[in-house]
Specification:
16 helices, globular, metal-binding, nucleotide-binding, alpha/beta, Rossmann fold, 2 domains, two-stranded antiparallel sheet, Dehydroquinate synthase-like, alpha domain, 410 residues, six-stranded parallel beta sheet, binds nicotinamide-adenine-dinucleotide
Length: 410
């Protein structure tokens, strides 16, 4: 049989006889970005930040020194002058949008504000990465806006909270809340670069340090007994002093770096979440619904802690963890400034609805990570409402009160 000639492609023959046709497109997208740690990034005499911001640009046109900065309003109050001085001193023509950034305004309106600023600035498609400076909310909002502006504009993250440094600032997820859905709309879009500077933690309120420690505790519980033991030591230091007191500097550094390392170890091979069994989803089964239900009351990490307390109860109930280990986890939480109990745990319907929503998120199965001992995990698909009630009863019975722990520490 003669093969089709170049001028007469075979599909034309087919189409003329019967509508139809078939093409298959296969492509692989290479993703590569760096996470760099450097203290005092905004020290004017240090060219590190300026160099990093210039070196990460991928465009092939003439280099541009124009940059649009999107800055969290609290960060602007604390560091605005230092930011302006740094960018001016290093020859950037910087414009700035200062944005309110916290969970209650993590929504489409904030994304629109960033899109409008990008448009007004006339951001170049490749050569002028937008720079996000702020907490996890700010980083998620800016990443989302950048990822949809011109179907993808480069951006850089400079996280300024503990959650930002160890979690929101290092992966590829962006997004905002939509209706009652936590991070319901968003994209997977890597930054060109993440620049981590722990000196920003100096101004972070203790409650927000605890909030970040919750995500570190999550990683420890499913991946590292050694990290958990260090967190127990940190719990005895007091949250503020862990990060402020030079005496604890080695411990604070180990906890922060190890957490980033373990997190990236999980994220890199499954960046687009093709595999939905993710141990870093530990503490994120019930918490998205609980957090949105109590959004004025609970911070992200606090909701994750409540979820981890409940799932610790589930592990104990299944014999995956001894009762003694379960109590140890709840005490560590308290010591890190996190309350294992929240009244949402008394709302059985809410917890069952939360699990149903997570099943939709995880393609029809619970794929619920549970701790196996401390530092290991398994995935289960058969948690029942009765088991959830028993898990709640475990937390109610064993969650130490804050004053009880203070007494123990004296
Ligand atoms: N994309 C991801 O992979 C990912 C991972 C984990 C969490 N998150 C998201 O991160 C968000 C939580 O992040 P967060 O805890 O940083 O909250 P946040 O961004 O709301 O910041 C907390 C508060 O701290 C203030 N702040 C920021 N930096 C400061 C500083 N250096 N000193 C003093 N105050 C400062 C902010 O203005 C805000 O009021 C949640 O929305 C969560 O969904 C995303």
């Amino acid at each position: 049989m003669p093969s089709p000639t170049p001028t007469t492609p075979s599909y034309r023959h087919e189409l003329s006889r019967r509508p139809g046709g078939r093409w298959r497109v296969d492509a692989v997208k290479q993703v590569s970005y760096e996470v760099l740690v450097r203290r005092d990034l905004l020290a004017v005499e240090d060219p590190y930040l300026a160099r990093a911001l210039r070196d990460c640009v991928t465009g092939s046109g003439t280099p541009s020194d124009r940059r649009l900065l999107i800055v969290d309003r609290t960060v602007e109050t604390l560091y605005g002058q230092a930011i302006d001085a740094y960018f001016a001193a290093h020859g950037f023509a910087a414009a700035k949008l200062v944005l309110d950034a916290h969970e209650q305004v993590k929504d489409w309106n904030s994304v629109e504000a960033v899109l409008a600023a990008m448009d007004d600035f006339g951001v170049d498609r490749r050569r002028e990465p937008v720079i996000a400076i702020g907490g996890g909310v700010l980083c998620d909002v800016v990443g989302f806006a950048a990822s949809i502006y011109r179907r993808g504009t480069p951006y850089v993250r400079i996280p300024t909270t503990l959650i930002g440094l160890i979690d929101a600032g290092v992966g590829v997820k962006t997004g905002v809340n939509h209706r009652s859905g936590k991070n319901r709309i968003g994209t997977y879009a890597q930054p060109l670069l993440s620049l981590l500077d722990t000196s920003f933690l100096g101004t972070l309120p203790a409650r927000h340090l605890s909030n970040g420690l919750a995500e570190i505790l999550k990683v420890a519980l499913v991946k590292s007994d050694a990290l958990f033991t260090s967190l127990e030591r940190a719990a005895r230091c007091g949250t503020r002093s862990l990060f402020d007191d030079p005496f604890h500097a080695d411990l604070a550094e180990y906890i922060t770096y190890e957490s980033i390392h373990l997190m990236l170890e999980e994220l890199q091979p499954n960046l687009w979440e093709a595999v939905l069994e993710r141990c870093v989803d530990y503490g994120h089964t019930f918490s998205p619904t609980v957090e949105m239900h109590s959004v004025a009351e609970l911070l992200h990490g606090e909701a994750v802690a409540v979820d981890m307390a409940l799932t610790t109860g589930l592990s104990v109930g299944r014999g995956l963890m001894s009762e003694e280990e379960g109590v140890r986890v709840l005490r560590a939480m308290r010591g890190l400034g996190l309350n294992p109990w929240n009244d949402a745990l008394g709302n059985h319907d809410l917890l069952c609805r939360a699990l149903e929503d997570t099943v939709r998120h995880r393609d029809g199965l619970q794929r619920l990570p549970l701790t196996r001992g401390i530092g290991g995990h398994v995935f289960v698909n058969d948690v029942t409402p009765a088991e959830i009630a028993a898990g709640v009863a475990f937390v109610a019975a064993h969650a130490p009160a804050a004053d009880e722990l203070q007494e123990a520490a004296v």
